[in-house]
Amino acid sequence: MALADRQAAAAADLARAGEANAPVQIIDYDPAWPVSFEAERKRLTPLLGGADIHHIGSTAVPGMAAKPVIDMMALVPDIDAPIVALVERAGYQFPPAYNATLSHRRWLCYPAASHRTHHLHLVDEQHELDRHLRFRDRLRADPTLACEYAALKRRLAGRFANDREAYTEAKRQFIQTNSGGIR
Which end of the chain is more exposed for a tag (fewer CB within 10 A), N or C? Predict the structure, then answer.
């Protein structure tokens, strides 16, 4: 899906919810991030049929600067089945227009788009999870690569502070080069 389509879908969901998008902000590593992930993993596991929930993204890389949002990914047999429980029982937001632009993935945020502490990515293909874990593990294992990525993210956050979709798109080439093709 094209960047303009994702941007339009995200804007439509925000307008429908009466919210503003949270700005892209990169901060220094917070040692509380793994603790926050673990607490949320325990809270969500029963709602995902016991699926393994993985800490992905920059907050999963010790010492790395990141957006202060815990990214999580779970491989599930049906990406749509847990949505209602995640929204009604766990308080996640599910932006329908944005999710309509995704294939083999669902994306939810908590507690709100205007103030996010967690992102949950549901995938139904093992290779999608594997690519995210490979990139995370490469960043963990290679401090030089992690520093390059952090510097890129800081530059892009300055350039795209109010456009999360453009920020994500601008990181795409670096991630693809260093992970085997993830977004």
Answer: N
